Amino acid sequence: MASESSFDVVSKVDRQEVDNALNQAAKEIAQRYDFKGTGASVAWSGESIAIAANSEDRVMAVLDVLQTKLIRRGVSLKVLDTGEPRASGKEYRLDSALKEGLSQDDAKRIGKIVREGGPKGVKTQVTGDELRVSAKSRDDLQAVIALLKDADLDVALQFVNYR
After folding, report:
1. pTM of the model
2. What is the reported pLDDT for 132?
């Protein structure tokens, strides 16, 4: 009798890749002519990314540079939780936090998608900030992965511990 196969659905951020993208963006901002004299900067601020410039448009341009670098390094933009630019004295600031881990609501929503659209006999179980999906057939698990990749979710998903 075949044993059950399973995998875990997680939402993790590769901090090293984010750090590399942040450093690349900071270098590009320091070198680009259109950012000269605007006080444009991007740096870590605790667990979030702080962006600053002298106008709202420049802040959004710096964010665009950072997003471009993240995409090139293979980091999903869904990990960024970006607020609105706000005035702080003579400069504008924008904080962008990193979203990591599946919340209980997200895990339940993903489990519901799997139950409704996935193959029969697939089971889901929420454990902490991850979701375990198990089935007797590996083909069913492949179908669930394809289903979740096509689903429009606001979290970046990775599929780990496939066995």
Report:
1. 0.85
2. 92
